[in-house]
Amino acid sequence: MSVNITLLVVMAALFAGGIYLLLERSLTRVLLGLILLANGANILLLSAGGRAGVAPLYSEEIAADAYSDPLPQALILTAIVISFAVTAFMLGIIYRSWVLGRRDEVQDDMEDRRVASQGSFDAEDDADVPEETTEFTPLEEAEEAPGSQNAGVLDLPSEPKEPR
Amino acid sequence: MLIVLIALFAVAFVAPLIFRRLGRSAFYVIGAVPGAAFVWLVITFDQYTGEGQSLLEGQPNAPPSIAFQWIPGLNLELAFRMDALAAILSILILGIGALVLFYCARYFKQDEPNIGPFGAQLLAFAGAMFGLVTADNMILLFIFWELTTVLSYLLIGYSRHRLAARRAALQALIVTTFGGLTMLVGMIMLGQTAGTYRISDIMAQSESLLSNGLVIDVAIGLILVGALTKSALVPFHFWLPGAMAAPTPVSAYLHAAAMVKAGIYLVARFAPGFADAASWLPMVLIIGLATMLVGGWRALRQHDLKLILAYGTVSQLGFLTMVVGLGGPGGALAGLGLLLAHGLFKATLFLVVGIIDHQAGTRDIRKLAGIRKTAPALAVIATIAAASMAGLPPLLGFVAKESVFETFVHQAEIDPTPVGTLLLVGIVVGSALTFAYSARFVWGGFACKGKAATPFTQVEKSFLFAPALLTVFTVVLGLWPAPVDSIIQPYVTLFEADGEESYLALWHGFTPALLLSVVTIAVGILLFWFRAHVERIQSRVPSVVDAERGYKYTIGTLDDVAVWITGRTQRGSLAFYLFVILTMAILAPLAAILFYDAPLPDRWHIADSPAQVAAGVVIIIGILAAVRATKRFMAVLMVGVTGYGMALIFALQGAPDLALTQMLVETIVLVAFVLALRSLPARLWQREPGRYRLLRAVLGISFGLVMVAIAMSSMASRVASPVSLEYPGLAYEGGGGENIVNVTLVDIRAWDTYGEISVLAIAATGIASLIFIRGRGDTRQRAETVKSGSVDRGQEPIAEFGREAAALELAKKFSSVSRDAWLVAGRTLAPERRSIIFEVVTRLLFHSIIIFSIYLLLAGHNLPGGGFAGGLLAGLALTVRYLAGGRFELAEASPVSAGVLLGAGMATTSLSALIPLLLGGQILQTAILEFWLPVFGDVKFVTSTIFDIGVYLVVVGLVLDVLRSLGSEIDERSEGLSAKNDPSEMKLQQQEHTETGEGVAR
């Protein structure tokens, strides 16, 4: 089948611009990048349908291959509406992020950073164990012993408050 | 056999319930299960010790076996076989299992927490061991093997509150799982080479397998690693002493009959066929001997009775591995004899230690004193068991050890190299150490040591029952070893006879073996006598093999590496992840295209029409402007330009439906953007854009180019004619519509559409819940209750003087004029926010747009339009209402809530999909109805229109949700923020924002 250069160039431009924006930190630009990517994908589908043709409204006189391919059209139609829903959903996320943190940016995950900088010492694995020569220590005493499971409970942060 | 297995597991499952009813006495109930099985086994024992031990299933005289297919594709079958070896092991597992469970009934407190699960685990452990020794399929064996690993993990970690127990449990789990997996690899190698996973088949063809050379040597080596870890041999021995953090009955079972015996069983199972593998003897003998010596040496240094026993077990396991693994009738007989003897005395000794700990509150031999006097019966039992361990006549331990000496003397005679002699010396030294630590145990636990007696509560008879019974067996079978001999002999027949007839007996006459026994005992006595010196020497010799430190080091290194890799890969930056993903997304298809000679298109054209080029240029300009824009709404607008350009391209391509939908969507998206982002700052960046601009541009452009290459080569690869050539006919004749795209959506590919509107409904709900947080906010406030002019839209305040203020004055004057309102709720808006022209135009247009949208919906089957376009247009009408009259106007305009619309839409489509099913058709089948209506005349109605109505409703619901959430609710929130007449509320809200804001920032 014949390849339409214009459509492919437009598609490449949409993908390139979309990726460029997607890699931004600004959430708004990330969303705009997504929209461009969706448009690029739609062009890809469209160009896969082949040459332009008659609008796919049935008439007995028109041969089947004279129509513009209806199948990619149906797929694109679905894609357009879905990307609208996704865009609206992302807008909700951006608003939420703004309300909660006054940030319009993709945040680094602090937990990941913390994990990356932590040492490998783990009390469960590496702390010294007291020598025990009986199984019949009273429970209370055992709980106060170093290394007991309950010893560290108080240090844990209390349940975080539910954000409104 | 199968019944026993099922009964063990079934009772284990209900055991917690029994415990809830009976408390600790439930141990008697569940102990009765292995007890009964033991009795059954003894009664039917003759069946398993028949002559044809190596015969396969189906042959006469073969040992009883059962097999069911489970997963044939994986060669996995539920195959069980009870031959002499399995029966001997089962005797230990069931008999000692029952006794240990009985013992538990006195060991634990009545109100012990978690006793139910514990009992269940212990019983299931017996079941897993029983399954392990009777399994005749290697994969099945592996499953039981890992089951024992998991159960031992739970049992060792029984005292959850103690760090030692938790750590020991984890250690045992890691070490034995490591071995188990290694073993699995070996088994798969063996099974694939043999073409069967049935153990009895493999044993039958072992000789031809051995001729395969290296594969089998490696496979057997790997399987042996499994045995090494399970049986706690050097260098994996450290987990067993650690595992004594388990409750003592568990230790007794683990050391005497279960878990560690699984490794010995594996060696015994494979020894008849594979002792000649190159990897076998070196591994078994060297590691066995090393373990025996290390264990014995360490045992002499311990002060905890249980640790003495634990290291003793390590030593004995090395010993057992050597003897059982030697291959040959002598080793087999001696090995299994020793196995039984060890089971009896080791269980006894652990149970005794448990009693001492229970009554005296310590196991430390430096604290214990005088128990010989306070509990004489206990002392007698322990002494007999320890004597059996030390190899003193006339006990079973002596009989077995005598036979071992005999075997190795024979081995040394026939072995021309000094290895045989060396092994014999090693065994004698090991046995002497065994004698010494046995003596240390008895002395440490019971001697008076010239100190005041430790407080010791009297021992109940029922508590003493299990160890006493085991001791009786030790003595009786020592004096009369014939029964033991007779049950082992069938297994011995699996080995090629080497001329020397051997049998178990108390008195063999004056043989070299007897002499060695005497030497052993003499050296042992010396070692014990000079124990103070020995201890001093021990403390001076640095420990050569500190495997535990090695284990810790390995785990620590693993932790470090994990942290390092996590830190390098999980950087916490989304952009970084995207970089990695996109790079792969570029490289992988590129490599595929380059290396697989992707075809290049041979035909191409610049464009379908000049107008297409123009539209393309518009889009590209839009992209460039969007990428370079610094103002938020400028960027949004530019992306909008590309969207409208897309609509143009669709229209030119011959896709009116797409063009229409794209136009509508683009418009609504613009509105949604403005609504959602109005409270965000106008500039896009709070700080300068990233340093990686060039990299991003390169990535973007190469992605675009790769996509072009993919598109080109996929288009060039097309050989068949498109499926859509059939569509026009299908649509018109089958679907009864002229608009092929629409019929495709609602009929030919209706499942796609159904899936899509489900996504729409979910997304709509998601948006609502993101903004409303609590619920969907579907309750609606009527405009009547709102004061006129009270609704602001959260814009900047107007200065007191100036043009705007003057305009405001005028607007206020007009807004107070009483006359028919154009819009129902227009009056609720603050005067300065109203536009009379907009209100009038809205009033005039709204209903026309709604009617037109319904027309699009209904006509869409034959003309451009359909549910999507119609729904979007109706949504646009609502948008106009909202923009003109504010949120109360929107509420008035939508008498039905968005949630109801979505639900009704989904229900309509679902019903239209299901009803044909009820009428005897297929799901989503459509019908064409033709009838006559007044006014309309002949009407052709296609039922897929009902499906389209559902789509329409869902789309309207989605747009309404967007408006309500991003429009109305954000209005209300920003009003709340700027409400000056209610400072307390404002303060509250601000506080809330900062609090949650901090929460996020942190």
List the helices and strands and how they pair.
The complex is a heterodimer of chains A (164) and B (1002).
Chain A: E1 3-4, H1 5-22, H2 27-48, H3 70-101, H4 110-117, H5 123-126, H6 139-144
Chain B: H1 2-22, H2 26-43, H3 45-48, E1 65-71, E2 76-81, H4 84-107, H5 115-134, H6 138-156, H7 163-194, H8 199-204, H9 206-210, H10 214-230, H11 239-242, H12 248-256, H13 260-274, H14 280-299, H15 305-325, H16 329-360, H17 371-374, H18 376-390, H19 396-414, H20 419-446, H21 461-479, H22 482-492, H23 512-529, H24 531-540, H25 547-569, H26 574-595, E3 604-605, H27 610-628, H28 632-653, H29 656-677, H30 693-716, H31 727-734, H32 740-748, H33 750-772, H34 803-815, H35 836-859, H36 867-893, H37 898-918, E4 928-933, E5 937-942, H38 944-978, H39 983-1001
Antiparallel strand pairs in B: 1-2, 4-5
Helix pairs in contact in B: 1-2, 1-5, 2-4, 2-5, 4-5, 4-12, 4-16, 4-21, 5-6, 6-7, 7-10, 10-13, 12-16, 13-15, 14-15, 14-20, 15-16, 15-20, 16-18, 16-19, 16-21, 16-22, 18-20, 18-21, 19-20, 19-21, 19-23, 20-23, 26-30, 27-28, 28-29, 29-36, 29-38, 31-32, 32-33, 33-37, 33-38, 35-36, 36-38, 37-38
Keywords:
heterodimer, A: mainly alpha, 6 helices, 1% strand, elongated, disordered C terminus, B: 1002 residues, mainly alpha, two-stranded antiparallel sheet, 39 helices, 70% helix
